[in-house]
Amino acid sequence: MRYTVAMVTVIALVVVFVVRLVDIQVVHASALHRQAELKRSIPVTVYGERGAIVDRSGVELADSVTRYDITTAPALVKGFRGKFGGTRLQKVSVSDALEAVSRVSGASVESMRTAIAADPKSNFAYLAKGLDTEHFEKLRRLEIPWIYPQPQSARTYPTGATAGNLTGFMGTDGPQAGLELAYDRCLAGTNGAQTYERGADGVQLPGSTVTTKQAKDGGTLLTTIDSDLQYMAEQDVAAAAKDIGAVSATATVTKAKTGEVLAVADYPTVDPNDVDATHDKGAYGSRALTDTYEPGSTIKAAIAAALIDQGRATPTTQATVPYSRTFPWGGRISDAELHPTEQLTLTGILRDSSNVGITGLGEALSAQQRYDYMRKFGLFEPQSAITYGGQPGMDYPASPKWDSQTNINSMFGQGISTTAMQVASIYQTLGNGGVRIPLHFVAGCRLADGSTIDAPDVTGQRVVSTAAADQVVQMLQSVVKGGTLVGMQPISGYNIAAKTGTAEVANGAAGYGADRIISVAGMAPAEDPQYVVTVTFTKPGPGHKFSSSAAPAFRTLMSQVLEKYRVAPSTSEAKLYPATW
Known about the structure:
The mean pLDDT is 90. Strand 16 and strand 17 form a beta hairpin. By secondary structure, the chain is α+β, with helices and mostly antiparallel strands. The strands form eight sheets. Strands 2, 3, 6, 7, 12, 20 and 21 form a seven-stranded mixed beta sheet that branches. Strands 14-13-25-24-23 form a five-stranded antiparallel beta sheet, with helices on both faces. Strands 1-10-11 form a three-stranded antiparallel beta sheet. 32% of the residues lie in helices and 23% in strands.
């Protein structure tokens, strides 16, 4: 009987063990296996590096560097025996370890203890973030078994505020402005994934790392910007703006023959390494690209070119020009300075920047013709070859919706809106023999395989005849030799063609106030234009309401451009058309 009971008991136990074994090895095998793997297999994100933004010579305007977040597994945090950065084994307490991490990383011991205590049984908690390589290496040499690095990519801007208005910057939520945002598809890397196993003591097991998804770096954004010239332009325009008390200012430098933009300077501007130091959010981007204003008399060069192109005028076309004009609807315009009735040619009208004179001759063209020419010069439409957030939509109709007064005022740059870059486009067109090439400062995105995408379409479009463009450039030399820029110190050895602009600023009450926007746009050498420079100053202080106050900045920047690129001096004196008759 006892034997039977014993046998039954043994059989029952065997059955229990068999059932449990089947349950573990068959029924719940995969689930238990996954749980075991989770306890020892640690996932790690491998960050794809964000691509660089470089200038025309390969100088990095924006780049990525490796930073390390330091994590731990709270369940494994305990004292240990190790060398702890020394040469002899020692007993290291948790407090000793956290104090050492704090000294290297800057994270407080209290914050690390709080992170560990939040869930003592968990396998993950942050101890410190954003360590550079130098500090990470110091931490690694401590050989603390329960801390684990997570490498990631951080953004840096080696040239600081230089070109910060163009590059934009990154935030915690990704790209926030400028080229970083506009070309995120090019620059962004694709993250990969790895796993590694660790033993019961929390130490990573050698040779256990497995890549489950390959990381992919972003492309390199190639710009046409010259970082050295960009720095000069920024310094020039900032110094001039402060000198004349302007609220803001811009400057552009463009290659006349190619439409490549070499510099776009703004004042004030942003340092993408320290965005919080910039309190003017308008400085986060580029006002030269995004802010619209009434251009004033710089537009007169386009009107003159249209007149010549249509055969309605020549550089010596004669006009009788009084100080002011009145119109049947009650409107009135006048020139900037009081003068007796003058006998001026079209050249003299540009030289003296006469509103009365340009409107008198400009009425030989219909409003539609003038509007169409302005569009062909690059006004009233977005910059087709520039991808940059915040540019005005410029959703203009196919025909002008001008009242009678605006129809007149538009010929001297009031009642219409432009950006500084669009004004630069007018002068690039004139300097390039009447062919407008879409202005651009991005050449494309170079991928890891060497191929290039996102190259802009820079196909040229003829706006006016070569003869019309060349004649206007020659006429604009009179502005420097005896007109509104006569007070500007010459640039020794070079013939300069330029035009000034002084525009009233709308005060929001259906009229204009005392504020002005002053500018100079020009090119050199006039006989074969190579570079176009524009400078614009918004709301300059007392005593600086006329465009002559913008002339020193124009001269300084143009001189630097000619010297930097070793442009051959002019070989003869400027040939000027008669200005009077």
